[in-house]
Amino acid sequence: MSIIKKYNSTNFFKYTFCEFKQVDDFNFPENNNYKSKSESTYFYADEGVYRKSNHWGRVANCRWKLISNNNYKNQQTVVGFAKWSNFYPLNSSQKLFFIKVDFDKSSVKIKSEKRDSNKHLFSFNEAQKKVKKINYLLKNDRWVTYFNGDKEFIKQKIITLYINSNKKLQEIKADFL
Questions:
Q1: Model pTM greater than 0.85?
Q2: Contacts of 149 (CB under 8 A, 6+ apart)
Q3: Is the dihedral of CA 79, 82, 88, 89 positive or negative?
């Protein structure tokens, strides 16, 4: 089992991945928070950090995602909260991430390991490379015309095998020919 780094107010902003959950009922206390150069505001609690910002995703050297309510629009200022235990190192060879594909929406996301996860795990860099290829597979159908059978079934099967193994995409495709 790998050792997970402990994060707190002094190191959570250094090459981390995290999913913040949108919070609608938090007011930042006066004179008891930190404001970044990009105008994001932070409040440190014992259990985690509150972040008020209008930008999420790539944040300096971090990848911070916002799990938002239905009414969120990009560039809207919102407050998100993340527990210290929800931060994961980006620049590590540790396999802490899995890939989630929504075939109905043709979307793919990198998710952080849940401690009891039985998903196939990758380092962040490995997951990023796979996501790039999966996005291509989801958005372009020309490649699937080389296979016999139901095209959507084949697409889903190949992508599912790809996110659940360390095999190269070419190897998985070759097994279907």
A1: no
A2: none
A3: positive
Q: Rounded distance, CA 91 to CA 5, Å?
A: 12
CA–CA distance, 38 with 41 (Å, rounded to integer): 9
Structural domain boundaries in the chain:
16-89, 97-176
The string of pLDDT tens digits covering residues 51-81 is 999 999 888 899 999 998 877 777 789 999 9
Distance CA 177, CA 175 (A): 6
Rounded to whole angstroms, the Cα distance separating 100 from 65 reads 14
Percent of the chain with pLDDT over 90: 66
Query: Can you name the residues that pair with 35 across neighbouring β-strands?
Result: 41
Residue keyed to tokens 């590590």: 92
How would you class 175 by CB atoms within 10 Å of its CB: exposed for 0-12, middle for 13-18, buried for 19 or more? exposed
Backbone φ and ψ of 44, nearest 5° = -95, 120
Q: For the chain, what's the residue count?
A: 177
Residues facing residue 51 across a β-bridge? 42, 80
